[in-house]
Design goal:
Blueprint lengths: L1 E6 L5 H14 L4 E5 L4 H11 L5 H24 L4 E5 L2 H10 L7 H8 L5 E6 L2 H11 L6 H13 L7 E4 L4 H12 L8
Parallel strand pairs: 1-3, 1-4, 2-3, 4-5
């Protein structure tokens, strides 16, 4: 089974992905966590350190290249794995980032989404941008504003694919979010919160 988790920074998707895989392993099932990062955090830290801002098109070019590489490698790994595969982030994240930054959707990412194996379940972590911002600031590794996170959230919601996502309310405590995720996976909760 392939599960993809998406959501804005600070929505708790990475924490939930780890918990999901750890729970499956504790039950004796095979499980694999694959991360499809795009080097955003690293670029953000470098920008803050040296006092320069990467232009949106340049950032998108770098992020898209890194994310596409990770997604392709991880789909190849998932294909060879027998068990639960949880992907933390996917190409939808890049499409939402483009939308949030006023960039066009392009052709490559939608084409790849059509060609790659579809997830058995795509769960989107919908978090209040203010709460997500508090979480981001608490971990101290990112530079995001509430406005950036709000634009990112709105961009996710505007994706044509969004209507096919299972949506969980990720503004609560991690245990509550995890319980909601488990109910979505087992079919005990409707796909849209």
């Amino acid at each position: 089974m392939l599960i993809v988790l998406t959501g804005i920074d600070g929505s708790g998707k990475t924490t939930a992905a780890r918990a999901l895989v750890d729970s499956a392993l504790a039950e004796g099932r095979s499980a694999l966590l694959l991360s499809n990062h795009a080097a955003r955090r690293r670029m953000s830290l470098l920008s803050a350190r040296y006092g320069w801002k990467v232009p949106p098109r340049v950032a998108d070019f770098i992020e898209t290249g890194v994310r596409v590489f990770n997604v392709l490698v991880n789909h190849a790994r998932a294909r060879q794995f027998d068990g639960l595969v949880v992907m933390d982030r996917h190409l939808h994240c890049q499409l939402a980032l483009r939308q949030a930054n006023g960039l066009r959707r392009g052709r490559l990412l939608p084409w790849l989404l059509e060609k790659l194996p579809a997830a058995d379940l795509h769960v989107h972590f919908d978090a209040d941008p203010t709460i997500a911002h508090e979480r981001v600031m608490a971990r101290g590794t990112d530079q995001e504003t509430v406005a950036d996170l709000r634009a990112f959230r709105d961009a996710y919601r505007s994706l044509p694919e969004y209507e096919d996502f299972a949506v969980v309310d990720a503004s609560g405590e991690p245990g509550d979010v995890q319980a909601q995720l488990n109910r979505v996976i087992t079919g005990k909760e409707p796909l849209h919160a």
